[in-house]
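Ticket #4471: structure export looks truncated?
Reporter: QA, pipeline team
Priority: medium

Steps to reproduce: submit the single chain below to the structure queue and open the exported record.
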Amino acid sequence: MNCLTCFLGGSSPTGFRTHFDEMIGDTRFYTYIIKGGPGTGKSSLMKRLAEAFPDEEKEIYHCSSDPDSLDAVVFLEHKVIFVDGTAPHCFDPDYPGAVQQILNLGEFWDSRRLKRSKEGVMSATADYLQHHARCRRYITALSEVTGDTSQIGRSALNEEKLDGFADRLSKKLLPKKSTPEEGKIQYRQLSAITPMGYHTYIPEDYDIYLLSDRLYAGSERFLRRLSDIACRKGYTVSVSVCTLYNAEKFEHILIPELKLAFLTSNPINELAVSEKQPINFRRFYDKKTVSSKKLRIRFNEAAAKNLLDEAAGSLVSAKSEHDKLEQFYIDAVDFDGVNRLCYSLISQIKGE
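Actual output as written to the record:
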């Protein structure tokens, strides 16, 4: 089974950020947008649907706030999408019934029981939102600190040397197509901050080039240039951005047709991958400029690590409140009804 694992999106200085609305807008797919409170079975429903089609090529999207939960499943052969459409990633149909439809799991809960839990639900929700707000404040500070290091990197970067390297590598790795058409950029979120820290899903069965870059600037320029070249040669490029910045920065790219992955290792993700081909970006920076700023760079790295730890800790607290919320709904949901819906959906997808 060919399966890409990623996140639906990630926390950013302005809240949850995702590009999945572009997938929902792809009218070649039929999208089921699942609505319902926490603990109503959205993730379990998607897991069971994915298990029902073990041999189909799929994309599995995890929740960055709770990586054990699913936020979406995309069936590439049947052209069907299931996605959690509740906060913080609220989605609604553009073409109701024709291209998208809502699955309302609220049909299976006991409203009377939930009304009796009103105070608990409201209190846990308020605390949950406060923890996420604190997480955003830490991420905002982290963005400023790493942005300062990135600025040092840009001032020291030998752009001509880097661009020449990218051009030569692209000639080696990206063969010309006999009938090239303009490629495209699509977004697949491989990395995100989670309660366990900053996590990256490593694509399976890809040749991986690991870009070691402690100053951020060179790897981002390289990834953008390589993406442009690949698109001009007719390839689809899957881009994973780092959501921790106000402005989105390329962190990783995949070229699925060639099974090529270019993953950045930096002080935020500290990515280490076995059986990879390393590219050290120190060669593209002016040594004197970097050396003159080494104390500032070290300070920024230490500050960024502390801020990242605090942001992840905020997500741990948020998950604790979310678990409380889930329990209120678990006690009020008719899961037999949800199971019947699951069987019905499997039959629909199979055309039975």
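Status: closed, not a bug. The export was complete when the record was re-opened. Leaving a note from the reviewer for reference: The chain has nine helices and 16 strands.
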